[in-house]
Amino acid sequence: MKYRVVELNTMNAEKPELGSLSVLEGDKDIPFPIKRSYFVYGVSAGEERGFHAHKNLWQFLSCPYGSITIFLDDGDKTAEVILDHANKGLLLEPQMWHVMHWNIDNSVLCVTASDYYNENDYIRNYEQFKEYKRKIIEHES
Ligand code: T46
User: Would residue 52 show up in a list of annotated catalytic residues for this protein?
Assistant: First the structure.
């Protein structure tokens, strides 16, 4: 499946009460230069967002505060990844149906993306996503 869990390079302060610093660099930790970042916040526990796939967009999802489960579906297999620490993220390749489930109130979803916002890159209907994937597989074989 087209995803990977990435552990970020993390510097822990000498005094534990000063916490840690985790860093993500475009083209190094993730295989694309970063063109956009956005944040989703103020979401109640139990709520879900997403329900779409991207045709060409690569993204890196992280949850620096709280816990969010990402349900993934490549049209054939499914998987889930729990983002619950600031030093961890999910590299999500294009053509993956994804749903974000908030496990804890006010968890923050941070996303860095390979391109600017373009609604034409979204597939927001699951049947259309399956059809899109079927055509790609047909074309490749
Ligand atoms: C994704 C997941 C992880 C913009 O105008 N510009 C933007 O850069 C973005 C990301 C969204 N929007 C608009 C489009 C909608 O009218 O903001 C509204 C909410 O977007 P959406 O319902 O797609 O939000 P989510 O949380 O379902 O999905 C978002 C991203 O849109 C999507 O690319 O992969 O987070």
Answer: yes
